Structure formats: C-alpha cells, structure tokens
Amino acid sequence: MRRSLLLINPAMMEKGRRLPNAGGIATMEPLALSQVAALTPPDWEVRILDEVREDIPDGIKPDLVGITSLSVTVPRAYDIARRFRQGGVPVVLGGIHATLLPDEAARHVDVVFQGDAEGAWSVLIQDFEAGALKQRYNGGAPSLRAMPIPRRDLYRKHYFMQLLSASRGCRHHCEFCTLWRLAGGRYRMRPVEDVLGELGGMSRQRPILFTDENIYTDREWALTLFRGMAEGGLKRPYAVQTSLDLAEDGQALRALQHSGCVIVLIGFESVSEESLRTMRKHVNLRIGVERYKEMVTRIRDHGIAVSGAFIFGNDGDDPGIFQRTAKFIVEAGIDVAHLGLLTPNPGTDLYDRLAREGRLLYTSFPEDYGRYDIRTAVFRPRNMTPEQLESGIEWTTRAVGSWRVVAKRAWRTWRAVGKPSIAALSLSWNRSGLYRRVMAQAEHTRSLRDVVRTPAARGEE
After folding, report:
1. pTM for this one?
2. I need a surface site. Which of 192, 244, 327, 435 has the fewest CB within 10 A?
3. pLDDT value of residue 28
4. The domain defined by 4-138 carries CATH number 3.40.50.280
5. Coil, helix or strand for 460?
C-alpha cells in the first residue's frame, strides 16, 4: 500500500491573514522539508506545502503529517496539528522550537522530533509502517557525510533564491541565539565533494544562499569549498552568512570573489561595545566597533556587497543607539540592512536571564509566541521603555530606508562592487523588503497594544 506524507511549513497568521514572514517579500524555499522528503522511502507519496505561499486544501487527508516550526510560527503549527489530529491523522512536529521545548510541543502533537532529521527520520518511518510510532524521537547532531540531496522537485511554487546547506552549527555562544543550544556549540561540515556535487545539479539561472550559520567557522574547509567552486566550473552568484573576522582574511575574500560570491551577511549586531559584551559577541569585540567601517571596505574592495544585521534593545543600548546605528549604516556603506529587536526566544540564555529578572512582558504561551517576531518589544529594556524601543526601530528604518537615502545607497553599491544586479537588490530590499516589513509590523503591534496578557505588560510588579 502506498502511503502519503504531507510536510508543512506554517506561516505567521493573525485572524486568518498572513503576516510578513522572516523572508519578507523574498520568501525562502522550505529546504528543511525537502531534506526530510529525501530521507523518506521512495514508495511513499510526499507533498511539500509551504503555507507562506499557498493554502492548505480542504479535505486533504494524508497518512502522516510532518510540520517544522520556529517559535514565532508555532501557534499556527499547533492549529494545523489540531486540524489533522481531529481527522485521525498523526502529526509530527520538528524544528528548533520542538527541539528546545519538547514537553510543551508534546501537548499539541502526536510525535515530537528533536534534532536533525538525518539522525532518526528513517527510524520514525519504520515505526510508523510497523504501527509502533513513538511519542519522541531524537536525531541529535549526526555526521553530515552521505547526506541525501534535497527533493527540490517537490516545490510547488517558484522561489527566487535557491538554498544549500554545506555545514551546520556554530561555535560561538551568543546569549540571544538558539543555534548553538541545539548541538552544544558543535560545528559539522559536509565533505566538500558532496557539496560540489549538489551544486552541479542545481539551476544556474537562480542565485544561491548557503544556509550555514557561519560558513567561515572552519577556515581550511571553507577555502577548499570556495576554490573547488571556482576550479570545478561551478562559479555562480551566491551569498553566505559569516562572522566579521572574514574581513581580515584577504585569501578567503579572494577565494569568495573568484567563486562568484556577491554578498556576505554579517552580524554586526550593535555599534555599542557594551551591548556586544552583554550578548557575548566576542569576535566583534576583538575587532572593535571603531574598525567596522574598515572591515566593510575590505569586503567591498573584492567586489562583494555587505549585508549587515543589527539588533536593538540590549542592556547597553540607550535611546541614542538608533541614530548612531543609522549613521553607521549610511556612512559605512552597508549595502543591505537587516534591523530587528532583541528577542528572547524560549530555550535561549537570554530568555532565562530576563525571566529571572522579571522583565518579560508576554508569557502566555503558546498564544504569545506570535509576538516574538523581532519587531515587537516583548521585554522591558534597561535604558528605555518598550514603546521607545519599538519607535526606535521605526525611526531607524525611515532614516536608512527613505527613497532618497536608499537611492544614494544603491548608487554607492553599484560603484563599490560593480554589479548592477546587487545595486538593484539593495534598492529593492532596503525599500520594499525591510521598510514594508518593519512598518507593517509596527502597525500590527499598535493594534495589539490594548491586548495585555500579563501584569508585567501593564507595567505592574
């Protein structure tokens, strides 16, 4: 008998309406689900449904449902699970939220899957086929050798950018981050020949984003990968996420340039060294905020644009942080800016600390997870009010995202990196992506302000 599996990526929802997702206007393909699909036996019928792009059809009834979720989308994941369970379909929940909060997840689904799918998905499928499905599975953090090629053929919608995973994990221990908590700071790399083989089978018509949290973690492995792309005829436009110390390595920058890299995403996080110390961003502290501009220039000198991420709300931030950050973004030539509010996701050291200090504002879970969207102040900052924090990110977005400023920034990008396509990306994201997302979320947050769930949110002790 041919069994069917439905894999779902839930969207952020409010009263039946989709809210701006993490991908903004440039939604990302659900790579994790295509990797799960690749681990599923070929005699199963597998469908991937990305709710960010499509609705769940009425009347659909697979044999098994698998859902992946972040904390911010888990309320919707639980709603979906309830719908299928009521129809007698068992539901598996995996992803970061289920891994870090398995006991909570177990109250809403039939099976909680922790860790990487490669470590236990085949066992789960065997148990299901034998009628002996367990309530918990843990894939851990296995070796990435012989990782199957994702089933990208199952995507039902077109995605602008292709995603590729070459390594997993991060050795840094930033206070706000969930990633290192998943595998205890362990970093794992796929064999370079496996990555190059997967690249060879991917479309050359669309750019690629390496999903690796920090592709520069193991320098020699990274250099081998970049050089292998150039020497193997696999050069194509691609983007990576990396730490700031990459900018000090001229050899690595040249290897990136020769292999086709067009943009690097770096977590600058803050222009306040006090805030960097609070969040344990040691690599940025070693380089120093005063050298940030120098690092940006070094990268752009190799024809590579810089995408910078910044977080507001740390204990070292005062109301002046917004103006200082906007000034840096414009003057340093940050080609693409990502702005967010410090968000204490459950399962992180930051959440635990703020909970001990009694500073969390919204803790009626799972409903309040929807507020943990990096655009809503969900805790009481040390040196400003929550309203000042939310107003501050709006002000910064306007300061770096007005048409006049964005046009100048895009022109500077064109001149610095010599790539019209990246200048167009800068113009589009900084205006249509960042600007619209922040402003839409600000409007949504204001509409919810009269809905108070805890005494802390009302300013009561």
Report:
1. 0.91
2. 327
3. 81
4. yes
5. coil
